[in-house]
Amino acid sequence: MILSETTDLCFRVRGGPELEFQVDDSTESDVKTALSASVKELSAKVRSESLVFGVRSSSLYIKLNCIFGMFSPELSDNTPCKGIQQFIKPDTADASLQYSNKKKDKKISTTGIINLDLMFEMTRPPVSCAPAITKNNRRHHNVNMTLPIDVVVFISPDEPLGELRNILVKSVCCQLDNMEKCMMEYMKGTAVPKPQPFHFQLPGQKYLSTIIYPAGIPDNQLESFRKDLHTQLGLPVDRPYLRRSNAYHFPNERYGDGFLRNPHIHLNHPVLENSTLHLIRGTYSYHHYMQDRVDDNGWGCAYRSLQTICSWFRHQGYTDKTIPTHKEIQQALVSVGDKPPTFVGSKTWIGSIELQLVLSHLLGVTSKIIFVSQGSEVASKGRELAYHFDTEGAPIMIGGGVLAHTILGVTWDETTGQTKFLILDPHYTGDEDLQVILEKGWCGWKGPDFWDPNAYYNLCLPQTPKVI
Questions:
Q1: Catalytic member of 30, 94, 427, 452
Q2: Is 301 a catalytic site residue?
Q3: CB 287 within 8 A of CB 432
Q4: What is this structure's pTM?
Q5: Gap between the Cα atoms of 83 and 325, Å rounded
Q6: What does pLDDT average to in each consecutive run of 10 residues of the chain (468 residues)?
Q7: Is position 140 annotated as part of the catalytic site?
Q8: CA distance 453 to 461
Q9: Which candidate in 8, 219, 296, 425 is catalytic?
Q10: Catalytic residue among 301, 310, 443, 460
């Protein structure tokens, strides 16, 4: 999380100013000229006295020439930015944050994000004028679009509010300019695409980077643009960093599907002398028994592990395909000739080999299979698992007997071979209660004795495609 890596405050400005313009002739050149003029007018409006930044969860408003609100007489242009925080009501809506705040070692903190609404005063000073009506019989083309402004600014807590206001205005105007460039670049005829800002936390960077993408144009059609960005930003060209699904997810923002994300980040990792920690890279959603109104208790653990793995590939930008259902997984196995048609709709258990086939068929992802003759030998694979997490970073499915689990990481001692496993258990049947999941060990660290010594195990290690 960015907030754990910087002492600066994060101000996030969001709003929806209207972009409106009219052209007499519906030619691309005319539309571009009118578009540019309209964006300039909007930028001038942002710089005007009508601009207001409303501080969310408070009664504070920041204007061009003052800061006002109930119970805030002591705020002025010279007040440090951190002075705003005392007037903001804390947001405790997110259950995962409530749980993390109970822990001594807090994994997430939202006190560094201050959300602002971009607004404009509607009232104007009275002007003496007479109404005028004109009539134009020429054909014209109207464009009306709400621009989704989303600006992120990092600033020292001791910076004065007057300077903050200037930086916010400049940043909003800069985003408007970038939106104009995006609309110009991807305009087709007189059709103007809607620009959408996305924030990314890139490796080696302390703050977020913002990129404007055109709505309606899929990621696979923007590959050349991303290649140029990878080059400009010095990013590797063997994995996605700048796809829409790679965008940073702010704390306190809920995912719309109801699944928990990355429950393991709330755990304290075991400390073993001379051991090294090797973890999953990126984001996944936790899939387990009884979700999606499907009663798969007793047979669907491998399906759920596969869904977790597919969610990881989706979150990392390797695919935009939805998480497959049980029937879609079964149909995939029928399509590749592994199962008969009667398999679809059954309650038949599947294992690592089937997962390998489904990942290849649905996502085009290859997998490495590791065979272990008995559970007591799983710990001997510590080196291979550590290497997988260091190089691929994807979740691992392990199946043995009639049980399947997802491995999210290992601690491994190169000298002794001692290994512990970070397990995400798909056999959980309860609600999405983070506290229960963590305290009852449904997501937690396990020793070598977790594996059945009398069962053989197959491990499916998905390999990440070399794409951007």
A1: 427
A2: yes
A3: no
A4: 0.88
A5: 50
A6: 68 96 79 93 95 92 77 76 88 50 39 89 73 75 91 96 95 98 93 96 93 96 96 94 95 90 95 91 97 97 98 96 97 98 97 98 98 94 97 97 95 93 98 97 97 95 96
A7: no
A8: 21
A9: 425
A10: 301
